[in-house]
Amino acid sequence: MQKGKIHSVESMGLVDGPGIRTVLFFQGCALRCKYCHNPDTWEMHSAKEMDVSEIIKMLKRFQPYYGNTGGITCSGGEPLLQIEFLTELFKACKKENISTCLDTAGYGYGEYEELLAFTDFVIFDVKHYLPENYTALTGGDFSVPTKFLDAVKKAETHLWIRHVVIPNLTDTEEHIKGLGAYIKAIPNVEKVELLPYHTLGVEKYNVMGIDYPLKDTLPMCKEKTKQLQRMILDIIS
Q1: Is residue 12's pLDDT more than 80?
Q2: What SS3 class is residue 90?
Q3: Dist CA 217 CA 164 (whole Å)
Q4: How far apart are CA 145 and CA 129, in angstroms?
Q5: What is the tens place of the pLDDT at every residue in 21-71?
Q6: What is the sign of the dihedral through the CA atoms of 51, 53, 57 and 62?
Q7: φ, ψ at 192 (rounded to 5°)
């Protein structure tokens, strides 16, 4: 049986999909987002290894708390880098009637059809909607998450969108209007959430001896984030 490389587990997540959810944070990410607050999830080494049966046993302990809406959310890092293990896990979850949610930036490789057949919800982290800005912000190739999003559209999976609002980078009205147009073209979006940039992960960079790219950027004003949230909801409605 395959083993997954797991960074950590949160037993009672309340903001990672519908209801109460057990959140499994996968180790490994190919992106290097300038605002990432979990640099300790980037590399695959030093992760805890867990097999599917071990995880299912844990989930069944928490299952009474899930009710009709809760379940498991796989986050990261980037779960799609371990797509074979993730697919095996979600298959096992469905056999146990456990709801499955994938929290992802869409930055994996391979085919997604089989995985999405066992995925109830996708929370898709939109880094940027313009290819050149996407690369500048993440170091990644915009075509990679685009391929994943196309698969989600085809599968008609329930989809939530999240986007981090960063001062002087993604906090202008012009940016939000462009983002709104990008999201409006996606047919199966059920929820859009703008998240204010924060600096809670900076200390991890100091401990790991890594330069933090946005060290001169202050946390995003939460009130302005709310204003932009209202704006984008008006655009997509």
Answers
A1: yes
A2: helix
A3: 14
A4: 10
A5: 999 999 999 999 999 999 999 998 878 999 999 999 999 999 999 999 999
A6: positive
A7: -130, 130
CA distance 210 to 12: 31
Q: What is the pLDDT of residue 224?
A: 96
pLDDT recorded at residue 45: 83
pLDDT higher than threshold 80 for residue 221: yes
Q: Which residues form the domain of 11?
A: 3-236
Contacts of 53 (CB under 8 A, 6+ apart): 1, 92
- Which tokens is 29 given? 């990410």
pLDDT tens column, 186-210: 998 999 999 999 998 888 999 999 9
Give the H/E segment covering residue 229.
Answer: helix 222-236
**Phi, psi for 98 (deg, rounded to 5):** -105, 125
List pLDDT tens digits, range 123-161: 999 999 999 999 999 999 999 999 999 999 999 999 999
| Contact yes or no for 137/127 (Cβ under 8 A) | yes
| CA dist 128 → 61, 79, 120, 172, 182 (Å) | 38, 20, 24, 13, 10
Burial of 179 (0-12, 13-18, 19+ CB in 10 A): buried
CATH number at residue 137: 3.20.20.70
Distance CA 20, CA 133 (A): 35
Radius of gyration (C-alpha) of the chain in whole angstroms: 17
Number of domains in the chain: 1
Asked whether the CA dihedral 15, 19, 22, 26 is positive or negative, the reply is negative
